[in-house]
Amino acid sequence: MKRRVRRYAWLMGTCLVLFAGSLPVYYLLGVEWAVAMCAVAMVLPPIAVIIGNSSDPTDPADHDARYGPNRER
């Protein structure tokens, strides 16, 4: 569980840094770099949600996951 939270936090933190850093990059390097940074920041939240909601097969606390490799029949 902690690994998933850390991965989610890192990805969302990266998203915020990219978005907030695009303004200084706009002034220093130009519009193209700032738009590219915002485009990457736009793609990261869905990826963070997918990674944050995936179960970890090595974590015993994740064995109650409804879907995934830990589901018992």
Description:
There is one protein chain. This protein has 73 residues and is mainly alpha-helical. The chain has two helices and no strands. Helix 1 runs antiparallel to helix 2.
List the secondary-structure elements in sequence, H or E: HH
Instruction: Give the total of beta strands.
Output: 0
Helix content: 55-70%
**How is the main sheet built?**
none
Gyration radius over CA: 17 Å
Mean pLDDT: 83
Summary tags:
73 residues, mainly alpha, elongated
Topology:
Elements: H1 2-28, H2 31-53
Helix pairs in contact: 1-2
Summed up, what is this model?
This protein has 73 residues and is an all-alpha fold.
